[in-house]
Task: structure prediction
Amino acid sequence: MLTLKVITENPDEVIRRLAKKHFDAKDIIAQVIELDKARRVAQQELDANLAGQNKIAKSIGMLMKDGKKDEAAEARAQVADLKEKGKKLEEAKTLAEQQIHDLLVQIPNMPHDSVPEGKGAEENMCEKEGGSIPELGEGALPHWELAKKYDIIDFELGVKITGAGFPVYKGAGSRLQRALINFFLDSARDAGYLEIQPPYVVNAASGYGTGQLPDKEGQMYHATTDDLYLIPTAEVPVTNIYRDVILEEKDLPICNTAYSACFRREAGSYGKDVRGLNRLHQFDKVEIVRIDTPEHSYESLQEMVSYVQTLLEKLELPWRILRLCGGDISFTSALTFDFEVYSAAQKRWLEVSSVSNFENFQANRLKCRYRDANKKIQLCHTLNGSALALPRILASLLENNQTPEGIRIPAVLVPYTGFDFIR
Result:
């Protein structure tokens, strides 16, 4: 959530930058400014009202002491009248504050100046790429056919048990999943991230804190009886560890990692792009989260991007990094880099990670703050990234490493799987 100070002090700048996200902020910003004026007026009148009450109240004792009972009674009546007016002023101020809040949660985060112009994914900028795209021979199979051939993932059984988008991993498929999770967690630990094992369901306050609510409510599974939400990513519970917390600058950046199952309704997803593991309702992911100072957060972002790159290099996958354009960047993000890997049998790039800096947008919702060297309390910057999401990594590993002898396991995973081929 943008701070009220930023909006009221720099309205034209906010409107200009949000236009890059194709969000016309003119009307909503004007409403916020008018409501803030009304709030300020109500606050000033309320302050004057309370001062008047206190002044008159102090005089009542002296009037009584001097035997001026009628004047004291009149003073009491004035205080009662001021109290009644004060209640109305308080109600007006509270209403203006609520209306401001209701508008603020509808306004996206401002994109960083380095975010390119563009309407959609096709206009994202390729920053960097690496690895070699394998040349597969005739008869190469997509991962859903390989899964069936080697009996390692059963999509139909998942439909029977739950529904589409909930695959069942079996045998070597399960071991490969576990190998990837452990490899990602061990790598994150070695890179200085503290491992967290978070809950998989969160309350509405947590969903609001990281921006999933109210923006993405329709994409989350909601347990209505308890008003709890299944997490779409470990970012939500891990970042909310620092909700309503004041940190010390010397302790920043805080670096956490967490494995979790993730749950997304993916309403409206259909067609060839959701075949097999390409888009699931339940999937596994290892997340990295950082809490940092504004001065250092973009250095942290680059460190996170470089770290994810090393994971893909170790997995021997062809990869590329995209800087998302204004029309493709999320509601909450200021700057996002997407990682994609090439799926050789499908002949297409698959997104496997998003690494984002939210600046103080989430922190303002979370009230996640730090005390600087001058003892001043400031909002933190929050960042997160997938390191990595498993389904499309697994899809690419299966497709890119298929050989006549079976599916080759990258060397870095062999100590985790205990086998070097799926046959």
In short: The chain has a mean pLDDT of 95.
